[in-house]
Amino acid sequence: MALTSIALLTGALLLAAPAQALPNIDPLFEEELAATPADEGLTAILYLSDSVPVRRLAAQLELERADRAARHTRIATTLRRQARRTQADLRRAFDAWTGPGEIFSYRP
C-alpha cells in the first residue's frame, strides 16, 4: 500500500473559503462549515490522493542494503519532492486565500 505523499495539510478554514475549489469535501465537514459563523474558524485535514510507492522504495533500499538513516533520508526526500511537485497549485491557492482572510492559516 502506498502512503499519500505528505498527506496532511492542516488549516483553519473560515466559512468564506471557496468550497468549490476543494473537491470531495466530506459531507459532515461541509455541514459543519455551512453552520459555522463567518467569523469563526474550523480546522481541517486534507487527504490527497497522489502517492509515493513507499513499500516498493523501501524494498529497493533493502536490496541496496541501505542503513536505517539512509532509508529514512531517501524516503523523506522522495515524499517531499513528490509533495512539491503535486501540491504546488494547492499551496498557491492557500496562499492566495490567506491574504484576504478566507483561510486563517495552514501548515503544509
What features would you describe in this structure?
The chain has helices spanning 27-35, 54-63, 68-86, 88-98, and strands at 3-4, 8-14, 41-47, 51-52, 103-107. It is of the alpha+beta class. It has one domain. The strands form two sheets. It has a three-stranded antiparallel sheet with strand order 3-2-5. The radius of gyration is 17 Å and the shape is elongated. It starts with a strand and ends with a strand. Residues 1-20 have low confidence and may be disordered.
Biggest β-sheet: strands ordered side by side in the sheet: 3-2-5
| Total domain units | 1
Return residue spans where pLDDT drops below 50 for at least 5 consecutive residues. 1-20
Q: The biggest beta sheet, please? A: 3 strands, antiparallel
What structural class is derived from the secondary structure elements?
alpha+beta
* Mean pLDDT rating: 76
Provide the β-strand percentage band.
15-25%
What overall form do the CA principal axes indicate?
elongated
CA radius of gyration: 17 Å
Through-space gap between termini: 23 Å
Query: Helix and strand succession?
Result: EEHEEHHHE
The tally of helices reads: 4
Helical residue percent band: 40-55%
Secondary structure tally: strands:
5
In short:
This protein is of the alpha+beta class. It has helices spanning 27-35, 54-63, 68-86, 88-98; strands at residues 3-4, 8-14, 41-47, 51-52, 103-107. Strands 3-2-5 form a three-stranded antiparallel sheet. Strands 1-4 form a two-stranded antiparallel sheet.
